[in-house]
Amino acid sequence: MPELGLPIIIGSFTPQIMVTLFVKANFSSSDVQLIRDSVSIGRKILAKSGIGLAVIPPGGVSSREHIGVFAHTGSLYEEFKDSYGRTQSRGPGGITARTEVQAKMTGNTNRAVVLFGDASAQGSRGYTEVNSNFPYYCIVKISAAAKTTMLHEVGHCADMQHYMANRDLTDSATADEKNIMAEVTDAKADLRDNLNQMEIDLLKRSYFFGMLD
Ligand SMILES: [Zn+2]
User: Fold this and answer.
1) Closest Cα partner for 204 from 25, 53, 74, 16?
2) What is the pTM of this model?
3) How far is the CA of 209 from the centre of ligand 1 (A)?
4) How many angstroms separate the alpha carbon of residue 195 from the centre of ligand 1?
5) How much distance in Å is there from the Cα of 156 to the middle of ligand 1?
6) Of 5, 85, 179, 181, which shows the fewest CB atoms inside 10 Å?
């Protein structure tokens, strides 16, 4: 029953995105530290746009179990080649885990759900399932150990796309490598620290953005 080790809400009257976090059952203290760091760095980036990041416990804001736990073991997402030969991800394990955690969440469902766990996929640090019966949900591959992956994947939940990191949207050669949606190497992942106006607008229109009351 991990606690976050940070305030779950910063400023009741700050507009915030709302996330609910889950970790695999056999988590370690360093796994919880990665989650804490992901929240902390997400807050730093969003604060530049006057947006907060609230962590809503699965059982509601008064629950001491800040971070939920899922029992599903094994890979949450995997890679495959689509009919064009492109590498894509899919998350059958993630869907199983998401079904499990759905039953543990009470209250409003206006939150981006993030699962921190294992993945067999080698080419990515996270994955967001957009083709499911649920609201979109995110997976962060713990072993990749990048602190910006959570915010990147939550961005996908707000319909943010990789091309939005391009200064010229039609030219991937113009990608701003410091934009949160940029596709960068592991070495550059945690150097990402900004969102542009298009991305901020999408976050503000997302189903998990709002004022806490
Ligand atoms: Zn992405």
Assistant:
1) 16
2) 0.95
3) 20
4) 14
5) 7
6) 85
* pLDDT tens track for 88-138: 898 889 999 999 999 999 877 789 999 999 999 888 999 999 877 788 899
Structural domains in the chain plus CATH codes: 16-210 (3.40.390.10)
Buried b (16+ CB within 10 A) or exposed e, 71-104: ebeebbbbeeeeeeeeeebbbebbbebbebbeee
Residue 213, pLDDT score: 57
How many angstroms separate the alpha carbon of residue 81 from the centre of ligand 1? 17
The rounded Å distance from CA 148 to ligand 1 centre is: 11
Across 58-82, average pLDDT? 93
> Is residue 12 classed exposed, middle or buried when 0-12, 13-18 and 19+ CB atoms within 10 A define those classes?
exposed
